Amino acid sequence: MFYRPKDGHDLPHNPFNAIVTPRPIGWISTRDSQGRDNIAPYSFFNGVAYVPPQVMFASTGIKDDVDGTKDSMANIKETGVFCVNIVEYAAREAMNKSSATLPHGTDEFAHAGIEKAECSEIDCARVATAPAALECRMTQIVQIEGEANFVCFGEVIGVHLRDDCVVDGRFDVTKYVPLSRLGYRDYTAVREVFEIIRPDD
Questions:
Q1: Number of separate domains in the chain
Q2: Residue 162 φ/ψ, nearest 5 degrees
Q3: 13 falls within a domain
Q4: Residue 119, domain member (yes or no)
Q5: Which domain of life is it from (predicted)?
Q6: What pLDDT, on a 0 to 100 scale, did the predictor assign at position 144?
Q7: 135 Cβ partners below 8 Å, 6+ apart?
Q8: What's the confidence (pLDDT) of residue 104?
Q9: Domain ranges, residue 104
Q10: What does the mean pLDDT of the chain come to?
Q11: How high is the pLDDT of residue 77?
């Protein structure tokens, strides 16, 4: 089949998210200017540069009690910082629970039973048990096509690695099993890893 998104797809559910998969999940933690913590998962997330290391995530949609965006983006606009917590399969239920639409200012860490730790370089909480956490300074927020589509870019200025995930000098994803987003309500877990050598290596 072929369809133009502007014309609709005539399927029961939008296939777009099922096409662009798997997607890593950025579990974004923020703190507002009043010191209230927030955490929410975003699957439009990725690393975008090595030097300096940079990441991005996109927020799509509006909360009724936030002006034109969602809590995470609103908090970053206030403070200029955020933390990306890497989601493991073992944390899938807490991650999902933290995605609930709750009143602005609600602490999703407490709501979902997530253990907190303080970041080292920024004024923000992080997931204490996460396999890795990236402390970020926001570099720019770009509004893209659509009423409430914002992309946040951040420079990684601090990196936490859980000790059990570092094996022989390498960060080993098989030690924690990354959780990835598929389409619809589907997820997958990364359990198989193989190496391919590039032609010019």
A1: 1
A2: -70, 135
A3: no
A4: yes
A5: Bacteria
A6: 97
A7: 81, 83, 119, 120, 121, 122, 124, 126, 156, 157, 158, 159, 160
A8: 92
A9: 22-189
A10: 96
A11: 97
In a domain, 168, yes or no: yes
Quick check: 195 pLDDT over 90? yes
The two three-digit tokens of residue 29, written as one number: 């933690």
**Rounded Cα gap, residues 150 and 80, in angstroms:** 15
Distance, in Å, from the CA atom of 154 to the CA atom of 132, rounded to the nearest integer, reads 16
Tokens of 24: 């890593």
CATH number of 177's domain = 2.30.110.10
Name the nearest CA neighbour of 180 among 40, 24, 16: 24
The answer to whether residue 39 is domain-embedded is yes
Q: Strand pairing partners for 41?
A: 27
Q: What is the mean pLDDT of residues 172-199?
A: 96
In this prediction the pTM is 0.95
Tokens of 157: 């200025």
Pairing label, strands 37-42, 170-171: unpaired
Assign 81 to helix, strand or coil.
strand
What tokens were used for 94? 């807490």
